[in-house]
Amino acid sequence: MTDDKLNPKSVGGTNPDGSEQSHADKASTVEAAPPQDVIEPDPELTPEEAEQARKRYLLRRFWISARGYWGRGGDGLAWPCSIGLLILIGTNVGFLYGINIWNRAIFDAIEQHNAGSVYFLSAVFLPLVFGSVALVTIQVYIRMMIQRRWRSWVTAAVIARWLANGRYYQLNLIGGDHKNPEARIAEDLRIATESPVDFIAGVISAFLSASTFIVVLWTIGGALTLTAAGLTVTIPGFLVITAVLYAAITSSSMAVIGRHFVHVSEVKNQAEAEFRYTLTHVRENGESIALLGGEEEERSDLDKTFANVLRQWALLAHQHMRTTLVSQGSSLFAPVVPILLCAPKFLEGSMTLGQVMQAASAFAIVQSAFGWLVDNYPRLADWNACARRIASLMMSLDGLERAEKSNALGRIKHGETEGDTMLSLNDLSVSLDDGTAVVKETQVVVEPGERVLVAGESGTGKSTLVRAIAGLWPWGGGSVNFHADRQLFMLPQGPYIPSGTLRRAVAYPRAADDWTLDEIEAALDKVGLDYLNDKIEEDAPWDQTLSGGEKQRLAFARLLLHNPDIIVLDEATSALDEKSQDKMMEMVIRELPRVTIISVAHRAELEAFHSRKVTLERREGVAKLVSDIDLVPRKRRRNLVSRLLENRRSLPKGNATSTEATLSRDRN
Predict the structure, then answer these.
(1) Which of these three, 405, 422, 445, is where a domain ends?
(2) Are 23 and 31 in contact (CB under 8 A)?
(3) Three-state secondary-structure class, residue 499
(4) In CA terms, which of 96, 107, 174, 354 is 20 to 30 Å from 153?
């Protein structure tokens, strides 16, 4: 076993002893700094205008962090890949132009019955196609590599901020639009980083294609002269004008028809996230639900949540139907329109068949470029929704980060004790994120080897005090100080059991191979889990397999392996029976005789294992320390009663009465 110590401020076992930074840590250090100021809506705005302003800011907030990928501390391949993608897009447009010229030449050769040219052009076509296909294939690879690496960089940065300083836990304590952060990080962030690359590549390709082939249309089509009722009208660049008008009609129609697409897509994504969360909640609490027979109630809740998903999907389907009506109609008309427009010139002999087909090909390309919005509006809407959801999570993290640096609500300070003192709470007050006090003016000093019991009725803030000691609860005042070179270990009421082998579960939060198999088996033996020794290397859903009592025993096995200097027990024996609880506490005191213990518990029997008792009591809505007394070690009465009962069995019947009298006196 290594001698590494856990950081007292990093509860549960991170190791800040100078080990190599993870990818997430590196990403968090290079992420663009979050905005320093809280953006408040203009009070003169209507609710609708304020909501629109908020949505615009959310997109801006997303880019503040996401663009760091191309920044000084971003990915070294970001710019080379981006520039390479632009070169590939431009080169591919050149190949499209070559194929467009080939169209004119082949149809002219066919019209002229020139067999030699047809055969030659047929041979030329293959290199053009292979070149274009190769360029598009490489373009797809580079584009997806940018998407993958960008997503990795932003995800690592967000996860690093989410996990830092217990913010993943603190998000549950504050208000804000950050529900289902796991879905936002996994799914919304994927779409938010994939779609912009597709959009930018598509826009650049569409711009280059439109610019190139508008020139082709203008050159080929020339002017169109119409004569009607004795009037002659000449329209210069009639094919270009038609292409622009056609694209304007389809794009504006799409914008009008799909104006609610963003909102509908955003609501649908939120409904999907809530449905996934409900399913996960049922799985994680399967045992309790099964024991209570709550399947019908859970089914009702799932049906309700899924019905909302279906309802939002139906609304989204209506949006897709309306946009498909425009896009499908546009795709059918686009190839026909240029042929009909060029037909008069072809029939009068001023335009060859090759020019007609070249114009038709160029018109289709221009129309495709102008109609890019028509084809991608649904994805653009989906990206807007996903970017806003991940930006909402970022804003909540921004708020926590500002709170860590601000004294507006008061922050609990963390420092080091003087001398040999293991822990000191100096005028510690704990409050909610809105400033409401929970625990006030707590003054406690814990010396090495002391075993302090924190008692009080439910709701007096004992667990909140423990969170403040652990550094998970930041709001309040005063300070929590630990000895600089001591290891702190937390045992919560519900121990966390990670996925994987039982060996990993016992060693958590350190690596499974930090201890030998013999050391892990010895720890399990001491906590009464020796019957699991033959399953140490078994990969199983231990969180679902082990009972509540077994999980708490396993947590004590972790305690023995890590051999800390300070232990904080937060109802850590609540799932054990009284006899097992006594054995666990006796084992800890025997195996770790110098350890300092701080216990939060309701059971009075635990007093026998502690040297001090600190009592919290709620007065006028705030919990305060009302007593701090030394406990005199003594044998518990129940042990005396058990011994007398055993003696009674060995005595003649005539002596039973005197024994009962002794028991009666002892009760009194």
Answers:
(1) 405
(2) no
(3) coil
(4) 174
Q: What is the pLDDT of residues 418-476, one digit of tens each?
A: 888 888 888 888 876 666 677 777 788 888 889 988 887 777 777 777 778 877 777 78
198 lies in the same domain as 237 = yes
- Range of the structural domain that residue 97 is part of: 54-249+354-405
Q: Please state the separation of Cα 487 from the chain's center in Å.
A: 30
Q: Which CATH number do you get for residue 508?
A: 3.40.50.300
| Residue range 42-55: mean pLDDT, rounded | 72
Could you give the C-alpha distances from 200 to 143, 241, 275, 618, in angstroms and in order?
A: 10, 26, 32, 60
| Total number of domains in the chain | 2
At residue 375, φ and ψ (nearest 5 deg) are -80, -25
Do residues 633 and 470 lie in contact, with contact meaning Cβ atoms separated by under 8 Å? no
> How many angstroms separate the CA atoms of 582 and 570, rounded?
16
Which of 197, 323, 326, 187 lies closest to 268 in space, CA to CA? 187
Weakest-pLDDT range from 23-37, 58-72, 374-388, 445-459: 23-37
* Tens of pLDDT, residues 345-374: 888 888 888 888 888 888 888 878 877 766
Yes or no: say if 434 and 617 are a contact pair by the CB < 8 Å rule. no
What pLDDT does 152 receive? 93
β pairing state of 423-431 and 476-482: antiparallel
Q: Say what the pLDDT of residue 446 is.
A: 87
